[in-house]
C-alpha cells in the first residue's frame, strides 16, 4: 500500500483485505472495558476539515484516540482559512507543528493529492469534492462482509451490490464502485440519466434506470444521498418524482431477496431517497456502518502510521 | 525475539538446520509442563492458558488439553495478540494483527499462563503483560515456553520451560508445530537472518 490513502482505486485486493482483516481484529476493542491501545502514542493526527461533517470527523477522531494518538481538530470555519489562507500555507503550518498524519476533507477534488506533495506526513482522504471517499467504501465493504458472510474473511466475490441515486456527485459511489470491483462484487448503478456521469460506460459496473427491475437481483442495496448542496441545476423535475422512481420505500424493500441488506452512507434525507420505515428496519445497516467506521479507520491509521516509515512517494 | 520466526532456508553454503527437538521430545516436554502447571497451581482450578500468536496458540491448546485429560475436566485456553503492544513497531512496516480470543469469563481473578514457543529477549512477554493489563486483572501471571534460548534483555523469566537451549545470538531458533507448519520440530540454524520477515507489510 502507499504512504497515503487518497483513493479506493489505488488499493490492491491484498491491501484492501489487509485493512478489512485488521479492522476485524480492532473491532473487538470496542467490546472491552478499556477501549484503547498504546500503538500510536506520541503521534499526532490532524483532522483538517474544510467541509461540514459529523460522522466522518468524529469517527476519525475516535479511531485516532483509541490508538492513543494525539488529535488536533481543524475546521476551516473560524481559522485563518476564513481570512484567505491557501491550502498550501495551511499545510505547511501543520507540517511545522509536527503532524504525522493529516486527515483531510475538502470541497475540491484532488486536494488530498496536492497536500500529499507538500507535507512529509501521511495523508488520508476523508472525502474530496466529487472524487473519492475511500474510508467510507472500506467501511461499507467491511459491513457487507460481516452481514453476508458467515466468517468475515476473504473478498466479496459474487455479491450483487446495487447503488441507487446521485452517482454523478457522489464520491461515496466512486470509491465504492472501485473497491467493490477490486473485492470481486458485481456492482449495478441505478440513477436518473441526468445523475449519471458522462463516461459511466467505462466504469466497472452495470448501469440501469429501472430500480424495480434490479431489486430482485440484489444482495446489497446502497442508497446515495440526494446532494442538494452540489446541485446548482435541475437534475430531476421534483423531489417527489425522484422519490417515487428512485426512493426505497417499504414496498420496494419487500421486492428484495430475503437476505438482502439496506445501506446508506448518511446523512439521510428521510422520505426522499429512503423511507423512514426502511431506514429503521432490521435490514438497515446504517447504525452499524457508523460503528464499523471507527474500526476501519483505526485499521487505516494503524497500517499507515503504526510501522516504520520507509519513505517513498504516493505513486 | 525477532530471530525466532525464521525465514526460508539459509543461503547456499550455510550449514543445514540442526534438529534439537524431535516430535516425541516435544510431546514429552509438553506433558511434563502440563503436569508442572497442575502441580504449581494446585490442580489448575482457576487457570487460563493464553498462547501468543502464531505458534504459542497451538502449544497453549495442547497444554490445556493434556492438563485437562490428567484432571478429567476442561481447562480454558485462548490467544493473546501482542502486536499493538510491541516496542519495535516503529522499526519496520506495520504488521498484520493476530487473533485475541478469550473465554467469555475473561481473565479477571484467574491465574493466566502465557504460552509462547521461544523465550529470547523477553520483549514479547513484556508486551503480553501490557496487553493483559488492558484486558482485566488476573490473579497471577505465569509463563510457559517450549524453548528458552537465553539472551534476556529484560528482567523476565519463565515458570515452565520445555528445553533450555544455550545459543549464540547469531544463531536462529525455529519452532515448528504441526498445526501451522505440518510437523513438530525445533531447529537451530547457524546463520543470521538477513532480513526479518515482513508479515503484512504495507509498504
Word description of this protein:
The complex is a heterodimer of chains A (315) and B (203). Chain A has 315 residues and is α/β, with parallel strands linked by helices. Chain A has two domains: 8-132 and 291-305, Rossmann fold; 134-284, Rossmann fold, CATH 3.40.50.1370. Chain A is 36% helix and 14% strand. Chain A has helices at 13-27, 55-66, 87-96, 111-118, 134-148, 171-182, 211-214, 239-246, 250-254, 276-279, 286-305, and strands at residues 44-49, 70-75, 101-106, 122-128, 160-164, 186-190, 206-208, 220-223, 261-263. A five-stranded parallel β-sheet of chain A has the order 7-6-5-8-9, with helices on one face. In chain A, strands 2-1-3-4 form a four-stranded parallel β-sheet, sandwiched between helices. In chain A, helix 2 crosses helix 11 (286-305) and helix 3 (87-96) packs across helix 4 (111-118). The mean pLDDT of chain A is 92. Chain B has 203 residues and is of the alpha/beta class. Chain B has a single domain (18-189), classed as Rossmann fold. Helix content of chain B is 25%, strand content 22%. In chain B, the strands form two sheets. Chain B has a five-stranded parallel β-sheet, with helices on both faces. In chain B, helix 1 (23-40) crosses helix 2 (56-71). The radius of gyration of chain B is 17 Å and the shape is globular. The model of chain B is unreliable at 1-11 and 195-203 (pLDDT under 50). At the A-B interface, helix 1 and helix 11 of A face helix 3 of B.
Amino acid at each position: 500500500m502507499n504512504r497515503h490513502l487518497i483513493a479506493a482505486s489505488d488499493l490492491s485486493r491484498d491491501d484492501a483485505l489487509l485493512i478489512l482483516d485488521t479492522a476485524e481484529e480492532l473491532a473487538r476493542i470496542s467490546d472491552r472495558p478499556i477501549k484503547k491501545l498504546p500503538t500510536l502514542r506520541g503521534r499526532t493526527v490532524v483532522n483538517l476539515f474544510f467541509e461540514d461533517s459529523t460522522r466522518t470527523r468524529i469517527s476519525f477522531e475516535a479511531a485516532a484516540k483509541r490508538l492513543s494518538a494525539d488529535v488536533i481538530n481543524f475546521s476551516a470555519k473560524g481559522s485563518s482559512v476564513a481570512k484567505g489562507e491557501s491550502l498550501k500555507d495551511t499545510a505547511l503550518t501543520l507540517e511545522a507543528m509536527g503532524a504525522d498524519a493529516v486527515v483531510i476533507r475538502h470541497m475540491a477534488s484532488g486536494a488530498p493529492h496536492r497536500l500529499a506533495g507538500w507535507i512529509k506526513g501521511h495523508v488520508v482522504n476523508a472525502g474530496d469534492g466529487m472524487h473519492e471517499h475511500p474510508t467510507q467504501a472500506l467501511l461499507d465493504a467491511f459491513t457487507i462482509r460481516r452481514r453476508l458472510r458467515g466468517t468475515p474473511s476473504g473478498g466479496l466475490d459474487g455479491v450483487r451490490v446495487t447503488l441507487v441515486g446521485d452517482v454523478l456527485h457522489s464520491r461515496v459511489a466512486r470509491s465504492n464502485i472501485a473497491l467493490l470491483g477490486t473485492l470481486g462484487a458485481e456492482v449495478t448503478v441505478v440513477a436518473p440519466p441526468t445523475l449519471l456521469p458522462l463516461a459511466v460506460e467505462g466504469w466497472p459496473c452495470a448501469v440501469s434506470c429501472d430500480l424495480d427491475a434490479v431489486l430482485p437481483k440484489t444482495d446489497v442495496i446502497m442508497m446515495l444521498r440526494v446532494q442538494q448542496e452540489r446541485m446548482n441545476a435541475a437534475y430531476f423535475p421534483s423531489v417527489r418524482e425522484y422519490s417515487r422512481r428512485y426512493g426505497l420505500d417499504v414496498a420496494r424493500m419487500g421486492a428484495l431477496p430475503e437476505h438482502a441488506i439496506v445501506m446508506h452512507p448518511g446523512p439521510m434525507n428521510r422520505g426522499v431517497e429512503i423511507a423512514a420505515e426502511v431506514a429503521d428496519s432490521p435490514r438497515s445497516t446504517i447504525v452499524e456502518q457508523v460503528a464499523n467506521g471507527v474500526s476501519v479507520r483505526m485499521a487505516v491509521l494503524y497500517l499507515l502510521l503504526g510501522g516504520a516509515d520507509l519513505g517513498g512517494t504516493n505513486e | 525475539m525477532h530471530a525466532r520466526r525464521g525465514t526460508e532456508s539459509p543461503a547456499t553454503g550455510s550449514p543445514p538446520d540442526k534438529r534439537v527437538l524431535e516430535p516425541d521430545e516435544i510431546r514429552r516436554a509438553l506433558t511434563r509442563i502440563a503436569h508442572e502447571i497442575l502441580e504449581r497451581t494446585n490442580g489448575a482450578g482457576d487457570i487460563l492458558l493464553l498462547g501468543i500468536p502464531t505458534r504459542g496458540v497451538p502449544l497453549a491448546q495442547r497444554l490445556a488439553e493434556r492438563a485437562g485429560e490428567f484432571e478429567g475436566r476442561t481447562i480454558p485456553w485462548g490467544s493473546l495478540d501482542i502486536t499493538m503492544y510491541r516496542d519495535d513497531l516503529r522499526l519496520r512496516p506495520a504488521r498484520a494483527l493476530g487473533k485475541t480470543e478469550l473465554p467469555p469469563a475473561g481473565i479477571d481473578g484467574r491465574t493466566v499462563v502465557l504460552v509462547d514457543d521461544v523465550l529470547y529477549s523477553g520483549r514479547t512477554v513484556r508486551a503480553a503483560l501490557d496487553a493483559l493489563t488492558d484486558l482485566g486483572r488476573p490473579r497471577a501471571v505465569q509463563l510457559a515456553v517450549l524453548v528458552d534460548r537465553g539472551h534476556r534483555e529484560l528482567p523476565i523469566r519463565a515458570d515452565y520451560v520445555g528445553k533450555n537451549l544455550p545459543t549464540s545470538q547469531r544463531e536462529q531458533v525455529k519452532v515448528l508445530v504441526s498445526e501451522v507448519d505440518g510437523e513438530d520440530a525445533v531447529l537451530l540454524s547457524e546463520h543470521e537472518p538477513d532480513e526479518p520477515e515482513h508479515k503484512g507489510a504495507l509498504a
